[in-house]
Amino acid sequence: MSKPIMPNKIGVIVDSFRVGVREGLVKAKNVGADGVQIYAVHGEMDPANLSVSARKELKDYIESLGLEISALVGDLGGHGFQDPSENAAKIEKSKRIMELGLELGTNIVTTHIGIVPQDRNSRVYETMHNACLELSTFAKSMNAFFAIETGPEPSAHLKSFLDGLGSNGVSVNFDPANMVMVTGDDPVQGVYNLKDYIVHTHAKDGIKLAEFVDPRDVYGDFGYEAPALDHDKIADMAESGEKFREVPLGEGSVDWPAYLQALKDIGYTGYLTIEREVKANPEADIKLAVDFLKTFRA
Measured between alpha carbons, how far is 131 from 81 in angstroms, rounded to an integer? Predict the structure, then answer.
């Protein structure tokens, strides 16, 4: 197919550079990004560690670089919202991250919630539904979005789960690479399936090496023997694993012209935010990714 002309701005996850926030912001500017996404879970970006004055100073600094925030990452790890004993604390922290996002100029926070069970009658499904219902109501009250990252389950099943919440306060951060690397789901069809919920995307590419990849081995699952979600573990799997590999944009199984055309078809005008989870030479790969996405501009 012909190359679509994309209207989207290009973002970079600051943490992908694997340096501090301030240095990462400068690097994002230097590679030609329009905006940034920042983890706001622990350390200097934990909402509990940022005073009112510190938040204003950070927002001013980002603006001084000519950047804006595409979203915050509010991924609290572990089993997402599958474990009822942890949900009260995780829900409260997620709310604080959404409030921080608004103060910094974004109404989008992205996250992983855990694998949505196929059985709607299971206790884990009910636990996740109740947590997301509360977060969706809170997000809608602020005109914000708590966006689930695609990958752990097929897009049609994720849509079914979201439809059950009754609003789009909990929405979607679309990651095409997670789909091709793990479930083998088609990102293009996924865009059409989730068209009513997509508020942010990750620009990432990958390939699936094994015929079958159990999502529980990648993302963890409450009650399953594999470890819970750990981004360093996923980075190791993506860099040198036997089941899938994350690769530079345009070198994997994501059909970028068809995928970007699908986003255009559904009227998505938000960010394409580059995520590079592998540890070796991320800065060079991110620059290549920015340049790759710019080839789809007029």
Answer: 7
CA-to-CA separations, 154 to 21, 116, 186, 232, 279, in angstroms, rounded: 33, 10, 9, 23, 27
Residue 35, H or E segment = strand 35-39
Cβ neighbors of 225 (< 8 A, separation 6 or more) are: none
Nearest-angstrom CA–CA distance, 31 and 189:
31
The tens-digit pLDDT sequence of the chain (298 residues) is 788 999 999 999 999 999 999 999 999 999 999 999 999 999 999 999 999 999 999 999 999 999 999 999 999 999 999 999 999 999 999 999 999 999 999 999 999 999 999 999 999 999 999 999 999 999 999 999 999 999 999 999 999 999 999 999 999 999 999 999 999 999 999 999 999 999 999 999 999 999 999 999 999 999 998 888 888 888 888 988 899 999 999 999 999 999 999 999 999 999 999 999 887 788 999 999 999 999 998 6
Q: Quote the CA–CA distance of 194 and 259 in Å, as a whole number.
A: 13
pTM for this entry? 0.97
The C-alpha atoms of residue 235 and residue 29 are separated, in whole angstroms, by 24
**CA–CA separation, 36 vs 69, rounded Å?**
5
